[in-house]
Structure formats: C-alpha cells, structure tokens
Amino acid sequence: MLKRIINIAMSVFVCTCVYGQQPDIAAFLERESSAKDDLSTGKKSSVEVIPGMFTTYRNGDRLYWEVPDSLLEREFAVTTTILAAPARPYRDMEKKFGYAGDMIGPVFFSLRKRGDELWMVDPLNERIVEGTVGTYARIAAQRGNDRLYKALPIRAKSERSSLVEVGSILKDFPLFTLDIVSFDLSIGSRQRDKDHIKEITGYQDRLLFHISRKYGSSSLRLPGQPETPSYIGDWDTGLCIRLLSEQPLEAVTADGGSYFAIGKEVFEGDNPSRRKAFIKRWRLEVRPEDRERYMKGELVEPVQPIIFYIDRNTPEKYINCIVEAVRDWQPAFEQAGFKNAIDACLAPTAEENPEFSIYDSSYPFISWKISGLNNAYGPTPCESRSGEIIACHIGIFSSVLNLVQKWYFVQCGANDPQAWDIVLPDSLQYELIKLVLTHEVGHTLGLEHNFLGSSHYSIEQLRDNEFLNRNGIGTSIMDYVRCNYALRPGDKVDLKNRRVRIGKYDRWAIEWGYRIFPGKDAREREKNRRSWNEKQQQNPWLHFSAGVDVESQMEDLGNDHVAINTQGIENLKYICAQPEAWRVTDKVSLHVLQGRYQSVIQHYTDWVRHVLSHFGGKRLAGLENDNIYLPEKADYNRKALKFVQTYFLQPPVWLFNESLTTPLELNAAKELEHFYEGLMPDLIRSLQKVEESENACEGMLSVDEFLQGVHEGLFTERTDSTSVDSALVDAAKHKIQALYVSSLLKLTETPEKVPSSRLLIAARQALKKINNEKGIERDL
C-alpha cells in the first residue's frame, strides 16, 4: 500500500514538472528533433537555426520563433510582395494590382505575454488619450489598446525568451498571406496544403520569408464577358516582418491639405473627443553632432536618406531618366535643410549586394510592369502611430508611354512637330517619363494632389521662356497639369519648359512637412512651424486647394481658362490641318493615330468643361479669407459665354471631318454625336448653376442672358453660305439644335426635378422662342 502511495506521489511530481512549467528551449528542440529521427535508417533529424530578430528554428514542416522578452510590446510591420504572378486565363487590364513587384500592406502586430501564451495582437493606434483626469479621458482609457489576433502557446522558455510554434500561422493566418487581398486580385481561394516556405533570412530588425503559394478559382461567367475557365495559379511571394522603431517619429499636425494624413480621435481631460490628423512623411533625422549646424541654416545629411531602388526589368534606356526624376526632389529637401536626402539607383545584383531583396520593405522600390494599363502609382504606406512612411513600391506600367505620347501630341503638337512622330524621340520620352515619375515620387513623400498649382500664370508668362526657366508651367507637379498647351506655333521654348516640373509649392510643401523646427518640445516646435507658415502663406503661389475654387481643376493650365483654352483649341485646329501629322503608313501608325485622335476629342471636351464650370463657379475671396468663396461675376461669365458660342455651339467640322477620320477608319458623324451627347448635360447643368447663383450678389449673370447667349450661338442665321464646309456645318448644327431642344424639353417635362419655378419658366420661354422663329419650327 505504501509503495502505491509513493508511485502516485511521484507521478504527480512528474506531471507538475512537465505541465506546470515549460521546458528549457534547448531541451525542447532536442526532443522535437529526436521525435523526427528516421529509426529505419538511423539517420538523425537536424534543426535548422536561422538567427535574427526572432531566432527561427526549422524542423521539417515545423517552425518556431524564439521571441526575446525585449521585443514584447514592440510593434512589427508585415508586408507581402508578389515576386511572380501566374498567367491567368482572364485578367482585367484596368486592375492596377496583381503584378510582380506589387507590395501589399503594411499590416501590424505586437506580441504580449499572457500567462503561458504569447498573444499576437493588433495595436489600436487610432486614439490618443492625453491624461485620465477628466471624465471623457478616463472612460476612453478603460478601453484596451489592442485586439487579439492569435494566442500562441509557449512551448518552451529560457530566462529571457519564449518559444512559440509559428509554422501554422505563417501558412494559414491572413495577415501573412495574399488572402487579405484575394478578392481585390480576383485570385480565388488558397490551396493551403501546397504552401511551401523556400527560404528564411534573418536580420536584427526583420525576418524575410520566400513562400510559394497556390490559388485556384472556378470557372466564372460575368455579364458581357466570355466565360473564364477554372485555373490554379502559382504565386511566388516574399514576406517581410519588420521591427518598428521603439520611439515613434514626432507627428506633424496636418494643416488643411498638402499631405496625405492619418486621423486620430483625441481625448483630453474633461473635453469631448475631437478629430486630429497627422501627415504622412518619411523619417529624416539630424545626427546630434549636426544639429547646431542644421539650426543655423547649414545643409546636413540625414541619418537615413530615402533611396529608391529601380527594378532591373526596367528598359535600360529609361534608367537614367528615372534616377533624374527622383533626384529632381533634392532641391526641395535642400530647402528643408537636408542634402542628399533622396536618390535612386539600379537595384543591385546578388553579387553586388547579397543582402538586397525586393521584398525587404526597408528598401523603397520602383517596379516596372509590362501591362496594357496606361498608368503609374505612388503609394504612401505608413505606420499607424505617427504617420511615418515605412515602405514603398512605386509602380510604372509600360503602357504609360502610350498615354504620355498622346498628351504631348495634343498639347504641344502645334509647337513641336517632333510630337507627330509615331515613335517619339528618346529625348521626348525621357522628359515625359520624368513628368510621370516625379509626380508619383511626390505622392510617396506624402503629398496630395494640389489642383490649384496650375492656375497662377498668365498666357503671356506661359509663352515666356525666361519666366518658364525660373518657374516652370505651374507651381506644383502634384497638379494634373501635363504640358504647355498655351504655346502657339512658332513660340521658342525649351523642351523642359513644355512639361510640368517641381515648382515653388512643392518645395514649400516639403519644407513645411520635413523641416525640423526649433523648440524644447513637440508643442513648441509645432507652434514655430505654424508661425513660419503663416508668413509663407502670404504668397498665393503656395496655396492648396482640392477643388472648391473654380480655378482648381484637373487637366487645366493658367489663370484664364477662356484665353488659354481658346489657344489650346486653336492649336488643335492647326494640328488637324497638318496632313503629315495624320499620315497612316501601317497598322502600328493607324493604332497610334486613332488614339491621338480620340485624345484630341477628350482634350477638347475637357477644355470646354473648364470654361462651363465658371457658370455658377466660385473663387476664393482673398488671402485673409481662406474659407470664404465668392460667386463668379457676370464680366468673366460673358467671356465664357462667348467661348461657348464659338467653340461649342458652332460645330468644329475641322475635327469631325471625313477627310480626317476616314483614313483613321473612324466615323466622323458618330464621333460628333458622342462629343455633343457627352457635353450637352454640362451645358444644362451650367444653366441650373446660373439660376442658383443669379441672386447671390450684385453683378451676376442672369438666366435670361445665359439662355439668350446659347440661343444666339445655336440659332442665328449663317451669313457665310459660300464656305465649302457650309453643308457640313448646317448638318452638324441641326444635330446640336435637336439635342439642345430635347434637353430643354426633358427639363420642362419633369418639373418635380427642376429646383425652381424661375428656371422652369425660363426654359419654357426659351423653347417658345425657338418654336416661334421663322424656319426653325419645321426643323423642330
């Protein structure tokens, strides 16, 4: 009996040792290795050890992390980069993502120790609780600061670390796979049993995993599209898990635009919560030994410059101009006090730098993608604590060259006959690629679009080469302004002055966002930044607008839409009259010229819309009233109305002419019909906006004057009956008249949708006038 009691006691003691505390890590791994020994051959299993941020142990299909206690509570960023994508049976060419070089993320996690588990959590950084004295702040502080992703059992311990098994989460948890974007990429479901970790590389502040995954989708039939067959695709991916800085970058409060920003809810004392935004920016810091020199105004090099690495798949002839496009931002950073702050170079080979990897998020990357998509993009992925930009992959699609050559042909073809070449000279291609890439780099630095940047210069200044040498064609490359279409045939302007470049606004924006201002703490530095900026903003060239001001429009140029868009259309008329610009010699030239012709129509449409937007449009009241806008007055609207009569209500038969369209295998009548069907709703909206603003203040254009101007432009008898195009004009004008009358009838037949009886009466009177005029009634 005594022996039985002793045996039971020993069993309890053993169980307590085994299950009451974790074994030593070395002993645990030895036991795991022994369990995998091949007893039939006597071959012993070995554990692969990968040193790094977390020492990683690989034993067959099992993976373990030894997590140091010093890294608990720290934050980690996870990014996944597509290294190779399968050739799928159907791919939407308008999708920007799903190509080799695309980076997904970052997403974030932290590790917390809770008993015998490590909790992988999502750190919730969208709130700031400043003290817990007041009621609101105290209640806000009661909510936890993270949410649980996974609870990982601690399998073994050392004095300062814990061992957890992670092979399953690296394979199955969405945070570490393409599953989080599978819908966006349209890649179907993952075949988990096919996942294969090819390589693991460890560093002191990051871990890299090269992983092959398979995704499969069933056959699918979408409306209007052929059925897509089922397929299984191999996705070669790179996973980077990177330790974030222990001390977040000092956040800069967003100041009404300029930068992309992250929003936070702030609880302070006994005050209700308020929203506060912080800009996105890279970490540029001054070495302690350089700080005094920096504060005196000397240029210093940052601790860690921003270096972009260029995809080795990029055509060799474009590499230098891509480097130049990145370096174009150097003067902006010099204005902020930093020299050599930004640069670019070709991605190194394995022999040149064995540590380089395109899926290592510590290397900003410029990816070249073979695609029919006419686009490029520049993301600003940041960490959620302070808005620090921590990873970046710019994407350039090869077909963006197709887009920019159309821009240059339409906007500069009247001034530069080289634009007529089917393949543009390399010198032109380089400038146009720089136009695109410099803009995208600006986004990756944190800058938003500023559509006011193109609105400051007169038509005379835009033709002055010396002025353009100093200022460029706009104050910001972050606007959607492309090339200088104010130039007339024969104007002598340098090539660099025919396209947009980094301007005064861009240099101010970088200085505002990146300069380190003096102050004993963040609050004082922010005060000094604001004080400095108040003086800077006395210069209207440094203003930001996202679209309220009528001058803040996309694809426009200059401070007078009537004058400059008039010149733009006259330039189009000149180009269309040049047979050499439209000479079709083969299928390639036919395709290119068809695209250029459609681009001519699109630009014409945009330029008419720029002017139409002034009816009922608003302008900023003045420098001292940055939130007050005044309606556009009648004087400028009368100029706009004259433009509409000349360039919209009088059909441009020189553009919709069979002698031009037939060699391009296009139908002139259909193109004209589509043009006016697209623009007529804009004319009716302008009428409605005029009515809304008619009584806003003195000196406004009236509805009657607007309708009379349209009537005169459309229904006045032609005096030139000898023109060879008179028959074409009359036929085209009849179509426009019918479309206009139909639009007015639709307005009057749905009175419940008309905002006022004043507009309803005016529209009916306009129709009655048309009906009563001699010769018009038959046509109606």
TrEMBL record:
PANTHER family: PEPTIDASE M1A AND M12B (PTHR38478), ZINC DEPENDENT METALLOPROTEASE DOMAIN LIPOPROTEIN (PTHR38478:SF1)
SUPFAM superfamilies: Metalloproteases ('zincins'), catalytic domain
EcxA zinc-binding domain sequence ranges: 424-719
Classification via InterPro entries: DUF5118 (IPR033428), EcxA_zinc-bd (IPR032534), MetalloPept_cat_dom_sf (IPR024079), Zn_MMP-like_bac (IPR034032)
Highest taxon of source: Bacteria
Molecular-function annotations in GO: metallopeptidase activity
Lineage: Bacteria, Pseudomonadati, Bacteroidota, Bacteroidia, Bacteroidales
Family matches, as Pfam families: DUF4953, DUF5118
Record organism: Bacteroides zhangwenhongii
Gene3D superfamilies registered for this protein in UniProt: Collagenase (Catalytic Domain)
Domain DUF5118 residues, every copy: 44-84
Alphabetical keyword list: Hydrolase, Metalloprotease, Protease
Protein name: Zinc-dependent metalloprotease
